[in-house]
Amino acid sequence: MFLLATVALCCSAVAGTLTLLEPVLRPQPERLVAERSLTDVPRTSDLTPVRVVGAPFEPNVNPRQR
Questions:
Q1: Would you say residue 42 has pLDDT above 70?
Q2: How much is the pTM?
Q3: Which of 5, 29, 36, 65 is disulfide-compatible with 40, CB 3.0–4.6 A?
Q4: What pLDDT is stored for residue 5 in this prediction?
């Protein structure tokens, strides 16, 4: 019982310390999503066309039918 209490206390101390230091240790994001400009978004003309091979996917809504 003494060992369990000691481990729980140590883990709580470590978790509490990391919680208090989280704002300091957390890396800041490079850019926020709201700061993006329209030039960052790819245009439809810049995207390469993709060829789909095979039948289109249709979900099986009737489980008895295969």
A1: no
A2: 0.40
A3: 36
A4: 95
Read off the tokens for 7: 């481990």
Q: Which residue has the tokens 């003494």?
A: 2
Per-residue model confidence (pLDDT) at position 34: 58
DSSP the chain: -HHHHHHHHHHHHHHHHHHHHHHHHSPPPSS-GGG--GGGSPPTTTSPP----SPPP-----TT--
Task: Return the exposure string of 8-31: e unless at least 16 CB atoms fall within 10 Å of the residue's CB, then b.
Answer: eeeeeeeeeeeeeeeeeeeeeeee
Token couple for 28: 């800041």
Q: Give me the pLDDT at residue 29, please.
A: 64
**Rounded distance, CA 35 to CA 37, Å?**
6
